Amino acid sequence: MLSIADSSRRWFRPSEKRPVERHMNSMASQARRLLGQNAYSQEEVERLVRLICLFAELPDPPDPFGLYPQYAELKDRFLASIQGPDGEAIEEAFLLLYAQIHGYEVPYTPDERSRVAEAGGYLSHVGGLSPILKAAPFIGADTVSGDFGAGNGLQGLLIQKLTPHAKTVQIEISSRMVEAGRLLQAWLAIPEERVDWVVADVSDVSPTGMDFIYLYRPLRPTGPGEEFYRCFAGQLGESRKPVVIFSIADCLRSYLSSDFEIFYSDGHLTCFRRSEVPARSSAA
After folding, report:
1. Which residue, among 148, 61, 63, has the nearest Cα to 98 in the 3D structure?
2. pLDDT tens-digit map of 53-108
3. InterPro entries given for it (predicted)?
4. Is 197 inside a domain boundary?
5. How far apart, in Å, do the first and last CA atoms of the chain sit?
6. Is residue 98 part of a domain?
7. Residue 107, C-beta contacts closer than 8 angstroms, at least 6 positions apart
8. E strand or H helix at 114, and its extent?
Protein backbone atom coordinates (compact mmCIF):
# COMPACT_ATOMS: atom_id res chain seq x y z
CA MET A 1 0.00 0.00 0.00
CA LEU A 2 1.40 3.39 -0.99
CA SER A 3 2.07 5.98 1.71
CA ILE A 4 0.79 9.53 1.34
CA ALA A 5 4.30 10.63 0.38
CA ASP A 6 4.63 7.87 -2.23
CA SER A 7 1.23 8.78 -3.61
CA SER A 8 2.26 12.43 -3.81
CA ARG A 9 5.47 11.61 -5.64
CA ARG A 10 3.64 10.14 -8.63
CA TRP A 11 2.31 13.60 -9.44
CA PHE A 12 5.80 14.82 -10.21
CA ARG A 13 6.54 12.48 -13.12
CA PRO A 14 7.39 14.50 -16.24
CA SER A 15 5.03 12.36 -18.35
CA GLU A 16 1.99 13.50 -16.36
CA LYS A 17 2.02 17.23 -17.02
CA ARG A 18 -1.69 17.91 -16.54
CA PRO A 19 -2.05 16.00 -13.25
CA VAL A 20 1.11 17.74 -12.05
CA GLU A 21 -0.35 21.16 -12.81
CA ARG A 22 -3.69 20.32 -11.16
CA HIS A 23 -2.00 18.87 -8.10
CA MET A 24 0.43 21.77 -7.74
CA ASN A 25 -2.40 24.30 -7.98
CA SER A 26 -4.35 22.41 -5.34
CA MET A 27 -1.30 22.08 -3.12
CA ALA A 28 -0.50 25.78 -3.48
CA SER A 29 -4.07 26.72 -2.53
CA GLN A 30 -3.95 24.46 0.51
CA ALA A 31 -0.57 25.79 1.65
CA ARG A 32 -1.65 29.39 1.02
CA ARG A 33 -4.78 28.95 3.13
CA LEU A 34 -2.99 27.27 6.03
CA LEU A 35 0.13 29.43 6.06
CA GLY A 36 -2.01 32.55 5.92
CA GLN A 37 -2.95 31.77 9.51
CA ASN A 38 0.68 32.26 10.60
CA ALA A 39 2.64 35.47 11.21
CA TYR A 40 3.42 36.29 7.57
CA SER A 41 2.34 39.14 5.34
CA GLN A 42 0.33 38.17 2.27
CA GLU A 43 3.37 38.73 0.06
CA GLU A 44 5.55 36.55 2.30
CA VAL A 45 2.96 33.78 2.25
CA GLU A 46 3.02 33.86 -1.56
CA ARG A 47 6.82 33.56 -1.61
CA LEU A 48 6.77 30.74 0.93
CA VAL A 49 4.14 28.91 -1.13
CA ARG A 50 6.37 29.28 -4.20
CA LEU A 51 9.26 27.76 -2.26
CA ILE A 52 7.10 24.91 -0.99
CA CYS A 53 5.89 24.10 -4.50
CA LEU A 54 9.44 24.36 -5.84
CA PHE A 55 10.83 21.91 -3.28
CA ALA A 56 7.91 19.54 -3.81
CA GLU A 57 8.65 19.37 -7.54
CA LEU A 58 12.44 19.16 -7.40
CA PRO A 59 14.23 15.81 -7.53
CA ASP A 60 16.73 14.94 -4.82
CA PRO A 61 19.65 17.40 -4.85
CA PRO A 62 23.02 16.26 -6.23
CA ASP A 63 25.08 15.12 -3.26
CA PRO A 64 28.51 13.71 -4.20
CA PHE A 65 29.92 14.76 -0.82
CA GLY A 66 27.25 13.15 1.38
CA LEU A 67 26.08 16.47 2.83
CA TYR A 68 22.34 15.69 2.88
CA PRO A 69 22.00 12.20 4.42
CA GLN A 70 18.45 12.73 5.74
CA TYR A 71 17.05 14.42 2.65
CA ALA A 72 14.87 11.52 1.42
CA GLU A 73 13.35 10.95 4.87
CA LEU A 74 12.65 14.65 5.38
CA LYS A 75 11.23 14.99 1.86
CA ASP A 76 8.73 12.21 2.65
CA ARG A 77 7.70 14.00 5.84
CA PHE A 78 7.39 17.29 3.95
CA LEU A 79 5.21 15.80 1.19
CA ALA A 80 3.00 14.14 3.77
CA SER A 81 2.56 17.41 5.69
CA ILE A 82 1.24 19.14 2.58
CA GLN A 83 -1.69 16.72 2.54
CA GLY A 84 -2.63 17.55 6.14
CA PRO A 85 -4.69 20.33 7.75
CA ASP A 86 -1.92 21.94 9.83
CA GLY A 87 -0.10 25.00 8.49
CA GLU A 88 2.49 24.89 11.27
CA ALA A 89 3.27 21.26 10.42
CA ILE A 90 3.84 22.23 6.77
CA GLU A 91 6.12 25.08 7.79
CA GLU A 92 8.07 22.92 10.25
CA ALA A 93 8.54 20.09 7.74
CA PHE A 94 9.67 22.53 5.08
CA LEU A 95 12.13 24.21 7.46
CA LEU A 96 13.67 20.84 8.35
CA LEU A 97 14.07 19.99 4.65
CA TYR A 98 15.51 23.43 3.93
CA ALA A 99 17.95 23.17 6.86
CA GLN A 100 19.11 19.76 5.65
CA ILE A 101 20.13 21.25 2.30
CA HIS A 102 21.52 24.47 3.76
CA GLY A 103 23.76 22.37 5.98
CA TYR A 104 24.64 22.42 9.65
CA GLU A 105 28.22 21.27 9.20
CA VAL A 106 30.64 22.83 6.74
CA PRO A 107 33.24 20.39 5.36
CA TYR A 108 36.28 22.60 5.88
CA THR A 109 39.71 21.34 4.99
CA PRO A 110 42.22 21.53 7.90
CA ASP A 111 43.73 24.69 6.37
CA GLU A 112 40.31 26.34 5.91
CA ARG A 113 39.30 25.40 9.47
CA SER A 114 42.51 26.98 10.78
CA ARG A 115 41.90 30.18 8.82
CA VAL A 116 38.33 30.42 10.11
CA ALA A 117 39.52 29.97 13.70
CA GLU A 118 42.26 32.59 13.33
CA ALA A 119 39.78 35.13 11.93
CA GLY A 120 37.28 34.52 14.74
CA GLY A 121 34.73 32.95 12.43
CA TYR A 122 32.00 30.40 13.08
CA LEU A 123 32.24 26.83 11.81
CA SER A 124 28.55 26.43 11.02
CA HIS A 125 25.41 28.53 10.69
CA VAL A 126 22.04 27.85 9.15
CA GLY A 127 20.17 30.96 8.13
CA GLY A 128 16.38 30.94 8.39
CA LEU A 129 13.71 31.77 5.86
CA SER A 130 13.02 35.33 7.00
CA PRO A 131 15.66 37.01 4.79
CA ILE A 132 14.49 35.02 1.76
CA LEU A 133 10.85 35.96 2.29
CA LYS A 134 11.53 39.63 3.03
CA ALA A 135 14.19 40.41 0.40
CA ALA A 136 12.06 40.83 -2.73
CA PRO A 137 10.92 44.47 -2.24
CA PHE A 138 14.56 45.57 -2.13
CA ILE A 139 15.73 43.74 -5.23
CA GLY A 140 15.31 44.88 -8.81
CA ALA A 141 16.46 43.61 -12.18
CA ASP A 142 19.78 45.49 -11.91
CA THR A 143 20.54 44.53 -8.30
CA VAL A 144 23.88 43.01 -7.32
CA SER A 145 23.40 41.04 -4.12
CA GLY A 146 26.12 39.63 -1.88
CA ASP A 147 26.24 36.97 0.83
CA PHE A 148 29.30 37.15 3.08
CA GLY A 149 29.96 33.69 4.50
CA ALA A 150 27.55 32.00 2.12
CA GLY A 151 28.19 28.32 2.89
CA ASN A 152 26.67 26.44 -0.02
CA GLY A 153 24.85 29.62 -1.00
CA LEU A 154 21.32 28.23 -0.69
CA GLN A 155 19.85 31.46 0.66
CA GLY A 156 21.33 33.61 -2.07
CA LEU A 157 20.28 31.06 -4.68
CA LEU A 158 16.69 31.02 -3.44
CA ILE A 159 16.53 34.81 -3.40
CA GLN A 160 17.83 34.76 -6.98
CA LYS A 161 15.25 32.10 -7.88
CA LEU A 162 12.32 34.01 -6.36
CA THR A 163 13.47 37.43 -7.58
CA PRO A 164 15.84 37.14 -10.57
CA HIS A 165 18.38 39.95 -10.63
CA ALA A 166 21.65 40.92 -12.28
CA LYS A 167 24.09 39.08 -10.03
CA THR A 168 24.40 37.12 -6.79
CA VAL A 169 27.90 37.17 -5.30
CA GLN A 170 28.56 34.26 -2.93
CA ILE A 171 31.64 34.67 -0.71
CA GLU A 172 32.73 31.51 1.10
CA ILE A 173 36.10 30.30 2.39
CA SER A 174 35.30 26.58 1.97
CA SER A 175 36.07 25.37 -1.54
CA ARG A 176 34.02 22.22 -0.91
CA MET A 177 30.95 24.27 -0.02
CA VAL A 178 31.37 26.32 -3.17
CA GLU A 179 31.50 23.09 -5.19
CA ALA A 180 28.28 21.99 -3.49
CA GLY A 181 26.76 25.41 -4.17
CA ARG A 182 27.49 25.22 -7.88
CA LEU A 183 25.66 21.90 -7.97
CA LEU A 184 22.69 23.44 -6.15
CA GLN A 185 22.67 26.30 -8.65
CA ALA A 186 22.31 23.80 -11.50
CA TRP A 187 19.69 21.86 -9.48
CA LEU A 188 17.63 25.05 -9.16
CA ALA A 189 18.12 25.84 -12.88
CA ILE A 190 19.67 29.23 -12.19
CA PRO A 191 21.72 30.48 -15.17
CA GLU A 192 25.47 30.32 -14.64
CA GLU A 193 25.99 34.00 -15.37
CA ARG A 194 23.64 35.03 -12.55
CA VAL A 195 25.96 33.83 -9.75
CA ASP A 196 29.60 34.59 -8.96
CA TRP A 197 31.25 32.16 -6.54
CA VAL A 198 34.19 33.67 -4.66
CA VAL A 199 36.39 31.34 -2.62
CA ALA A 200 37.86 33.79 -0.12
CA ASP A 201 37.93 35.02 3.44
CA VAL A 202 35.08 37.53 3.91
CA SER A 203 37.67 40.06 5.13
CA ASP A 204 39.28 40.05 1.68
CA VAL A 205 36.15 41.03 -0.28
CA SER A 206 34.74 44.55 -0.42
CA PRO A 207 30.97 45.17 -0.38
CA THR A 208 31.46 48.21 -2.61
CA GLY A 209 29.29 47.89 -5.71
CA MET A 210 26.65 45.71 -4.06
CA ASP A 211 23.05 46.88 -3.68
CA PHE A 212 21.76 44.20 -1.30
CA ILE A 213 23.97 42.53 1.32
CA TYR A 214 23.25 39.55 3.56
CA LEU A 215 25.33 38.79 6.65
CA TYR A 216 24.86 36.09 9.23
CA ARG A 217 27.47 37.22 11.77
CA PRO A 218 30.35 35.80 9.72
CA LEU A 219 32.95 36.68 12.39
CA ARG A 220 32.90 37.19 16.14
CA PRO A 221 32.99 40.93 16.96
CA THR A 222 36.35 40.71 18.72
CA GLY A 223 39.96 40.77 17.54
CA PRO A 224 40.13 40.25 13.75
CA GLY A 225 36.33 40.23 13.63
CA GLU A 226 36.08 43.71 15.09
CA GLU A 227 38.45 45.00 12.44
CA PHE A 228 36.38 43.27 9.75
CA TYR A 229 33.16 45.01 10.82
CA ARG A 230 34.94 48.36 11.12
CA CYS A 231 36.43 48.09 7.62
CA PHE A 232 33.22 46.68 6.17
CA ALA A 233 31.19 49.61 7.52
CA GLY A 234 33.83 52.06 6.31
CA GLN A 235 33.69 50.64 2.79
CA LEU A 236 29.90 50.89 2.81
CA GLY A 237 30.18 54.49 3.97
CA GLU A 238 32.37 55.30 0.97
CA SER A 239 29.98 53.62 -1.46
CA ARG A 240 27.60 55.82 -3.42
CA LYS A 241 24.87 53.22 -3.62
CA PRO A 242 21.62 53.28 -1.58
CA VAL A 243 22.51 49.86 -0.21
CA VAL A 244 20.22 47.61 1.86
CA ILE A 245 21.74 45.28 4.47
CA PHE A 246 20.08 42.23 6.03
CA SER A 247 22.07 41.25 9.12
CA ILE A 248 21.34 38.20 11.28
CA ALA A 249 22.61 38.32 14.90
CA ASP A 250 23.85 41.78 13.99
CA CYS A 251 27.34 43.02 14.85
CA LEU A 252 27.46 45.82 12.28
CA ARG A 253 25.18 48.45 13.81
CA SER A 254 27.71 50.27 15.99
CA TYR A 255 30.14 50.66 13.08
CA LEU A 256 27.79 52.03 10.42
CA SER A 257 27.70 55.75 9.71
CA SER A 258 24.73 57.86 10.76
CA ASP A 259 23.25 57.93 7.26
CA PHE A 260 22.22 54.28 7.72
CA GLU A 261 18.95 53.60 9.48
CA ILE A 262 17.27 50.48 10.84
CA PHE A 263 13.95 49.94 9.08
CA TYR A 264 13.19 46.47 10.46
CA SER A 265 14.30 44.41 13.45
CA ASP A 266 12.77 41.38 15.13
CA GLY A 267 15.58 40.49 17.51
CA HIS A 268 17.07 38.08 15.00
CA LEU A 269 17.10 39.89 11.67
CA THR A 270 18.12 43.56 11.55
CA CYS A 271 17.70 45.48 8.29
CA PHE A 272 19.52 48.70 7.40
CA ARG A 273 19.17 51.07 4.49
CA ARG A 274 20.62 54.31 3.26
CA SER A 275 18.05 56.01 1.11
CA GLU A 276 20.13 59.11 0.38
CA VAL A 277 23.51 58.85 -1.30
CA PRO A 278 26.03 61.11 0.46
CA ALA A 279 27.41 63.97 -1.61
CA ARG A 280 30.97 63.72 -2.81
CA SER A 281 33.38 65.80 -0.78
CA SER A 282 34.83 68.61 -2.88
CA ALA A 283 38.54 68.81 -3.48
CA ALA A 284 40.40 71.29 -1.31
Report:
1. 61
2. 999 999 999 999 899 999 999 999 999 998 888 888 888 899 999 989 987 555 54
3. SAM-dependent_MTases_sf
4. yes
5. 82
6. yes
7. 65, 67, 174, 176, 177
8. helix 110-119
